[in-house]
Design brief:
Elements (H helix, E strand, L loop, with lengths): L10 E3 L5 E3 L2 E7 L2 E3 L6 E3 L2 E3 L2 E3 L3 E7 L2 E3 L9 E5 L2 E2 L10 E7 L2 E3 L4 E14 L2 E3 L14 E12 L2 E2 L9 H4 E12 L2 E2 L1
Parallel strand pairs: 1-4, 2-5, 3-8, 4-9, 5-10, 6-11, 8-12, 9-13, 10-14, 12-14, 13-15, 14-16, 15-17, 16-18, 17-19
Antiparallel strand pairs: 6-7
């Protein structure tokens, strides 16, 4: 758990994963640098499979003013910020496993896959983030740097900036993959 509000900044460099949350409430992660992580820079993890349960739902996670540089270098994860879960068949998609998530004012540089993936949520805001510096990658997906948000409610996405690049999709709408979401407010996201 990292809460850094002084002039000192943490650098997570060449780690397997920057931070993993298996249960959390009221955590601020601010003004840190995550670079060259082998997997996702940040993850929440709830696993409910046959004979195995780990992790608990997370709430009140705030990511502000961080830098994510060339994360997920193995290209094995779906995103730089990964809020998805491994659930046994039959688990209700209506159950939120992450709530009150704020991702604000962060810089995502040269993401290998999507910038942010979130599933099974309630009350998520993604605002004023920048996605830049895309370089050619051998296994890049067309939605590189974009957002994939599924199965939740109360979503706000606005004020985000995506740098135009031949290595990402052609328009801002293709970078915002939103499905199974109730009460979504999406505006002022630009590909420039």
């Amino acid at each position: 758990v990292v809460h850094n509000t002084t002039n000192i900044s943490y650098v997570f460099s060449a780690c397997v994963v920057g931070t993993t949350f298996t249960s959390s409430a009221r955590i601020l992660i601010e003004n840190n640098t995550f670079e060259h992580t082998n997997s996702s820079a940040t993850m929440t993890e709830v696993e409910i499979t046959s004979g195995w349960v780990s992790g608990l739902p997370s709430s009140h996670l705030w990511f502000k003013g961080n830098k994510f540089i060339n994360c997920n270098v193995s290209e094995k994860q779906e995103a730089t910020m990964n809020f998805t879960h491994n659930l046994q068949g039959g688990y209700s998609a209506g159950t939120s496993l992450i709530s009150r998530l704020l991702i604000e004012d962060n810089d995502f540089v040269n993401t290998t896959a999507r910038g942010i993936v979130i599933d099974l949520f309630d009350d998520v805001t993604i605002r004023n983030n920048r996605f830049t510096g895309f370089k050619e990658r051998p296994n890049s997906i067309k939605e590189r740097g974009g957002l994939k948000i599924t199965n939740g409610k109360h979503l706000k996405i606005y004020g985000n900036r995506f740098e135009k690049s031949p290595y990402i999709a052609g328009d801002v709408n293709s970078l915002l993959n939103i499905t199974g979401v109730d009460d979504a407010v999406i505006y002022d996201n630009l590909l420039e």
